[in-house]
Specification:
There is one protein chain. It is built from seven helices and 38 strands.
Length: 640
């Protein structure tokens, strides 16, 4: 893990000295003060305190001073890293300087100065007993050896000339990864051999801003594309794990959907806590990304410290959470126990501490299942402008990628629409029918155990309409319910998943409203009868669909609600239902329009050993394009 490495005993002896020359970093207070202050157990989590930098700011080297909190004067501070975890760290300052920080004596050394004022050390890490760091302005990788006090260039490749080298990280095998900002790339050098050609060139499509390895060996890269990217260090394959591309603003997004969170283009650094939490230096805020049971896929993004940017040093405030303020964060350093995050407030010349304390909890081990239901609006050439499928299909696809449903039921899907989705969602298996409902699920997560369809008619086992039998008038189309039985490999659980689309009196049909109601009621009765047969094996059931009816109708009040649990009401009962709004939007996402269409038409019901951990109506658009005239409904379930 980046920034948690130890020095040898020989180096530790060096740090026992009482005074070092002015141009060499090291502790220089002859009187040993008490050790680090341990906050009182009652100190609130996410309390920000200034440790160094209250004495002033000096960009020129000559104005910087060593000493404790009230004496030390820093310049523009960037990267930090451990030399001995919890005891000694290094600090990089933009004006060609490096410092050592003695945490036990609470002292900063005088800066070690190298090169000229054109040298700008940025981010780095301890590796093999040396501090390896990127010199941004000189486009070099340099090292500083605390034992010999030697600073030298390790790599200055021709393709980097005139570019900005930002950070360096090493994996457990000793391979070096170098982030070169202006080339939008991270380069891998096998065994740290910079004389050989890069073993991998990882194109990010945006500037890389920081590098860190997580506990699983993934390379985590922050970018100025406002996203956090996970990189496979063996293949170079990339995956966005958080952030809306080019958002350039702050928004924590929908809990459990990290791809809806918004970051700025200045994600300066990322630190990783022992429990796997990512702490992100996002301009003048600290954001936390906490994994869910599905890892990064259902992580939660939360702002834990910082609010309004303070450009005047005198107005920078300590405090709890968003009551604290920063100027511009440059680097992060996580304590070994995960209880403290050290922060360099770059342009203010300060070192700050974020007390996390008991706020660090283990990642949830609950196995969750994310299900969706979505009427995607059929392909209709009469739909003009942004309503036409050829315009909005990219928005539909992006929504499905952003929310990463484990399993989803579609309504009004036509063959050409399903072809588009299948071609662009290769990680999903589709169960199609001769009619418009279909299902899709993550291929790697599930094993298909069984599947089937039944028609919403008096003869459900054959393709048929509800007339004659339920009503006398033929609606001119066949309705059905499609289902699949899946085995969840992660949770080792089986469940049934169904989707349907109930009848409605609409243009193109000759049935009356009363006949449509009769068909819906009879359909609900039939679905319950079929589900009773399914659950004889004890597996839970999830029923989804566009029911074309309000919750007060007999279809729900006398049938579905008497047999199933309605996720909407269950989520409200549990307090995990933040936006109880209609699911039909009539091609408008205004609040005024939403009040007109107050009924739910799209539902998720369940029965058996499940519970609800989140219910969301995804009322969003993409650059002004509404994906459909219905909002999808997302429900996260927990297996009991």
């Amino acid at each position: 893990m980046k920034r948690i490495l130890l020095l040898s005993a020989a180096l530790l002896t060096l740090f026992g000295c009482t005074k070092t020359p002015a141009d060499n970093p090291g502790p220089d207070n002859p009187v040993d003060p008490p050790g680090p202050v341990i906050p009182d157990p009652s100190t609130p989590s996410f309390t920000v305190t200034t440790l160094f930098g209250t004495a002033g700011f000096s960009n020129p080297v000559s104005g910087k001073k060593d000493g404790g909190e009230s004496e030390a004067v820093l310049g523009a501070v960037r990267g930090m890293g451990w030399i001995e975890a919890g005891k000694t760290a290094f600090i990089l300052e933009q004006s060609q300087t490096i410092r050592l920080w003695d945490l036990e004596k609470k002292r900063l050394s005088m800066p070690y100065t190298y090169g000229t004022d054109q040298n700008v050390p940025w981010l780095g890490i301890l590796h093999g007993g040396k501090v390896w760091f990127a010199d941004k302005a000189k486009a070099e990788i340099r090292t500083y050896d605390p034992a010999s006090r030697v600073n030298q260039t390790e790599a200055a490749r021709s393709e980097w000339a005139g570019k900005s080298v930002i950070d360096i990280a090493f994996n457990e095998g000793g391979d070096a990864f170098v982030a070169v900002r202006d080339l939008n790339a991270v380069y891998k050098f096998t065994g740290g051999d910079f004389t050989a050609a890069p073993a991998l060139t990882i194109d990010l499509g945006a500037w890389p801003l920081s590098l860190v390895f997580d506990a699983d060996g993934n390379l985590i890269v922050s970018t100025n594309g406002c996203q956090i990217v996970k990189v496979d260090p063996m293949t170079g394959a990339t995956e966005v794990i958080a952030g809306v591309k080019d958002a350039k603003t702050f928004d924590d997004g929908i809990p459990g959907s990290p791809l809806t969170a918004k970051f700025t283009a200045n994600i300066a650094d990322v630190a990783i806590a022992p429990n796997g939490d990512l702490y992100v230096a996002d301009s003048h805020r600290i954001r936390r990304i906490r994994k869910g049971s599905g890892g990064y896929a259902d992580a939660q993004v939360e702002t834990v410290a910082g609010s309004i940017q303070q450009k005047n040093r005198a107005q920078i405030a300590n405090g709890v959470g968003t009551a604290a303020s920063f100027n511009l964060i440059g680097g992060l350093l996580m304590s070994e126990d995960g209880k403290r995050l050290y922060i360099s407030d770059q342009a203010a010349g300060m070192i700050r501490e974020l007390w996390i304390g008991d706020g660090v909890i283990p990642v949830s081990t609950e196995k969750k299942l994310r299900a969706g239901t979505y009427n995607i609006r059929f392909y209709n050439d009469a739909d003009e402008g942004n309503r036409h499928w050829d315009v909005r299909k990219a928005a539909v696809l992006q929504l499905l990628k952003d929310y990463a449903f484990d399993v989803i039921g579609f309504q009004e899907s036509r063959p050409e629409q399903r072809t588009f989705l299948k071609e662009n969602l290769p990680g999903y298996t589709f169960k199609e029918t001769d009619e418009e409902p279909c299902l899709a699920w993550k291929t790697e997560k599930f094993t298909r155990l069984d599947e089937g369809v039944f028609y919403l008619s008096p003869t459900p086992d054959v393709a048929s309409s509800p007339a004659p039998g339920w009503v006398e008038t033929d609606p001119g189309r066949k309705r059905l319910c499609v289902w699949v039985k899946l085995h969840d490999k992660d949770a080792d659980k089986d469940f049934y998943f169904l989707t349907t689309h109930l009848e409605v009196a609409s243009s193109g049909t000759s049935i009356t409203e009363d006949e449509a109601l009769t068909i819906r009621v009879k359909s609900a009765e039939l679905i319950i009868e079929k589900v009773r047969g399914m659950i004889s094996d004890g597996s839970p059931v999830i029923l989804t669909g566009d029911m074309n009816s309000p919750t007060t109708e007999s279809t729900h009040a006398d049938y579905f609600k008497t047999y199933f649990t309605d996720t909407y009401y269950r989520s409200a009962e549990l307090g995990v239902n933040p936006n109880p709004i209609a699911t039909y939007n009539a091609w408008s996402d205004t609040d005024e329009q939403a009040k007109k269409w107050y009924h739910r038409y799209d539902y998720q019901y369940y029965k058996g050993d499940l519970d609800v951990s989140r219910y969301l109506v995804l009322r969003i658009n993409y650059d002004g394009v509404l994906p459909s005239d219905h909002w999808p409904v997302l429900v996260d379930y927990i297996y009991k």
